[in-house]
Amino acid sequence: MTAQTRLLNRLPREYRDRLMTLAKEVSFPQDTRIFDEGEPARCFWIIRTGMVTLDVRVSDRTLLPIDPLGPGDLLGWSWLFPPYEWDFGAEAFSPVRAYEFDGAAVRNLCDLEPALGVSLLHGVAEVMAHRLVSARVKLVEAHRTHGRIQTHHS
């Protein structure tokens, strides 16, 4: 199991159960743009089925894929930190079903239950560290390959 899939599993059962009371089931058709860098980040998702591609914008029309996400993975952390704007973009690579959580409601729950908040923050920090390393590796590889970034266009 990777750091990405540990977010819910790392929470004690009572905290996981409390957090899941805030979950709403959602779906995204294949090729749906879920969010873009810089847009307001009001929620996050735990992917149940399907695949999502995280990407970073390297020019006005060019996106660099960073990390594939699948079942059990956390999609989005920007809801947790001001200014609550997405740091990456995300697109459904296949049809996706996910649990959606309202960021403000989860932050409120964390304020009411600080131990849950600390546990959740540790899990999100693990995911962030993994994703930032992935982004760095992709950017360095792209630069080394051709002296410029190889990308796909949206």
Automatic annotation (TrEMBL):
Signal peptide: none annotated. It comes from Streptomyces xanthii. InterPro entries: cNMP-bd_dom, cNMP-bd_dom_sf, RmlC-like_jellyroll. SUPFAM superfamilies: cAMP-binding domain-like. It comes from the Bacteria. CDD domains: CAP_ED. Gene3D superfamilies: Jelly Rolls. This is Cyclic nucleotide-binding domain-containing protein. The lineage of its organism: Bacteria, Bacillati, Actinomycetota, Actinomycetes, Kitasatosporales. Residues 7-76 form the Cyclic nucleotide-binding domain.
